[in-house]
Amino acid sequence: FRPKQVVPRDPAPGLYVHVPFCRGKCAYCDFYSIPEETGIPAWIEAVRNEARLFQDRFPCFDTLYLGGGTPSLLDERELDHLLQGLFRGLAFSPDLEITLEANPDDLSPLRLAAYRNAGIRRISLGIQALEDDTLRFLGRRHTAFRAEQALADSLSAGFSSVGVDLIYGIPGQTSRAWENTLRRVLRFRPHHISCYQLTLSPETPLGRQHHEGRIRLPQEDVLADLFLATSGILQERGYLHYEVSNFTLPGHASRHNRKYWRRAPYLGLGPAAHSFRTPVRWWNPLSLDAYCRRIASGRPPCEGSEVLSREQALLEALCLGFRTSEGISGPVLAACPDQEHIVRDLEQQGLVVRQEDRVMPTCRGMLVADRLALLFMA
Q1: How far is the C-alpha of 326 from the C-alpha of 241, rounded, in Å?
Q2: Half-sphere exposure of 87 toward its Cβ, with a 13 Å CA cutoff?
Q3: Are residues 16 and 267 in contact, defined by beta-carbon separation less than 8 angstroms?
Q4: Inter-residue contact 21 to 71 (CB < 8 Å)
């Protein structure tokens, strides 16, 4: 069974499915997840049923992103059952981009081949670091050797794009260690690299250690230097710095994630998933049990919603736009008072450049993207 194929509208919506299962919780992670797998069958049925609730509310999707949690915990049979339910309940574009997030420990050549045969086009590997001590500190369950092996296997498996997630700004991590991780990853030349600065929520184990003074995060100037060095190294190797944390070889940018940054519509299925269609954003409960109960009753599992005001929508467009190399379009800027004076001042500071009717952040501008957005809302 293949998805119902329909010519998408512009912009086509994206579909996100939250897979809330992990074998263990990483010490820095504040995403909703459950460190056990017994609930997978009930979750799959609930997601299939939730998809049917929305079959007439969204036009066809051209992206499907399986995030988590740890989607690579799903075996071939479970993944097939999930996808077939989505394909029966919703309509998809002929050039559907399906992305799956994966932990290196879950992957083998056989499983990668099964994912490829199921229609997965992009794999995003959560490597995070390539020093075993750092991986243990973060609570990752794979080793550096296993991460490199999984990356090599993924690149050999025939996916259209293979991405790598990395974390910098880790307590005790030197700039030399971080740059060594980058250069080791670059030996494989993955199609996409995401480099995230470590942020700690108070509810996480590392967040509590930080609050208690047992670990210290790097100072802001150190983090800024790491950000700029990362951009320089990757751009020298041919990667485009197209969003604050994301770098891509030409032609391999994430179509799905761009929907978030461009404020395109998207539907989120599963516990904790968020959805958006102008001007409304809504979200599901942070509980697998509550989510499944609501689906079983035939009700949408919505936990809450908000209608964005014109000012909120404008600020969001500015914040997201200044995070990307595309920057801000003329119509958005036209809604901002005194925007010409602000743009000229930012140009003089080397934080933005103009190209036709767009204003785009420089690398240093991306570093202060949120501050740039607020200037236009004064």
Answers
A1: 10
A2: 16
A3: yes
A4: no
DSSP label of 13: P
Q: What is the mean pLDDT of residues 261-271?
A: 97
Note the Cα 1 to chain centre separation in Å: 28
Q: How far apart are CA 131 and CA 183, in angstroms?
A: 13
CA separation for the pair 35, 29 (Å, rounded): 12
Tell me if 194 sits within 8 A of 164, measured CB to CB.
yes
Residue 104: C-alpha distances to residues 5, 96, 125, 367 (Å): 32, 25, 6, 30
254: exposed, middle or buried (Cβ count in 10 Å: 0-12, 13-18, 19+): buried
Residue 186: strand, helix, or coil: helix
Spatial contact of 240 and 247, defined as CB atoms under 8 Å apart: yes
> Is this prediction's pTM over 0.90?
yes
Encoded tokens for 55? 């079959």
Q: What is the distance between the terminal CA atoms of the chain, rounded to a whole angstrom?
A: 53
Tens digits of residue pLDDT in 45-87: 999 999 999 998 998 999 999 999 999 999 999 999 999 999 9
Name the burial class of residue 88, with classes exposed (0-12), middle (13-18) and buried (19+) by CB atoms within 10 angstroms of its CB. Answer: middle
Tokens read off for 275? 């959805």
CB contact set of 252 (below 8 Å; sequence gap of 6+): 160, 161, 163, 191, 192
